[in-house]
Specification:
Largest sheet: 7 strands, mixed
Strand order of the largest sheet: 1-2-6-3-4-5-7
Order of helices and strands: EEEEEHEEEEEHEHE
Radius of gyration: 16 Å
Strand content: 35-45%
Structural class: mainly beta
Helix content: 10-25%
Number of strands: 12
Length: 131
């Protein structure tokens, strides 16, 4: 078994009861496991915001775990929608537009950690109050 960028390099092929908190990457997507349920991550960029330990598996390894929802960006993630150039902070699973440049200093937001996202990824989160 070898680790590389939070990915375990071993391919799980048979149905497995993965522990909560692990992400499983298959040919059909990446899923976060919680209480024997799985949530499909909306994109690799969303996965990047979580920094999960990720296991590689065939879809058959997840056959006994039901998909119950989608998972977007982690709270505290700063995203920029490239479709409209708006910057948002994900908070309580909502996107809060940064409308005041002083918000970066006020809340300790680091522009260098900003993740550029598509309109579809951005819209995964409902709109919250602006910052």
């Amino acid at each position: 078994m070898k680790f590389f960028k939070n990915v375990v390099l071993i391919l799980v092929t048979s149905p497995t009861s993965f522990p909560s908190g692990i992400a499983v990457k298959t040919s059909s997507g990446t899923y976060w496991i919680k209480d024997n349920k799985r949530f499909k991550l909306v994109s690799d960029r969303a996965e990047q915001s979580w920094s999960f330990t990720t296991v590689l598996a065939e879809d058959s390894a997840l056959s006994n775990i039901k998909v119950v929802g989608k998972l977007g960006f982690r709270d505290g993630t700063l995203i920029k929608n490239i479709a409209d150039s708006k910057i948002y902070l994900i908070s309580n699973n909502k996107r809060r537009q940064v409308v005041d440049p002083d918000s970066f200093a006020k809340y300790g937001l680091d522009r260098n950690k900003l993740i550029e996202v598509s309109d579809l990824e951005s819209n995964m989160h409902d709109i919250g109050d602006p910052l």
